[in-house]
Amino acid sequence: MKQLRYFLLAAMSIWLSRNTSAQQFPMTDHYLVNPYSLTPATAGGTDKGALFFNYRKDWLDFGKFSPETMRFNTHFHIGANLFLGAEAFMDKVDILERFKGLVSLTYRLEMTENQFLHFGIWGSGYQNTVRVDNINGNIYDPLFRNLDQLNGTTYNGGFGLVYYHNLFETGLGMPTLFRTKDAYYNQSQGRFAFEQEFLFHIANRFIIGTDWSLKPMLVARRTTNTPTIVDLSAQLSYADKFWISALYRNSQVVALGVGGELFNSMNFHYSYELGIGGIHHYGGGSHEITIGFRFGQYQQAEATPRQPKPGKHKNKRYMLHEYQQMYEQKYRRN
Question: What average pLDDT does the segment 167-187 reach?
Answer without folding.
Answer: 81
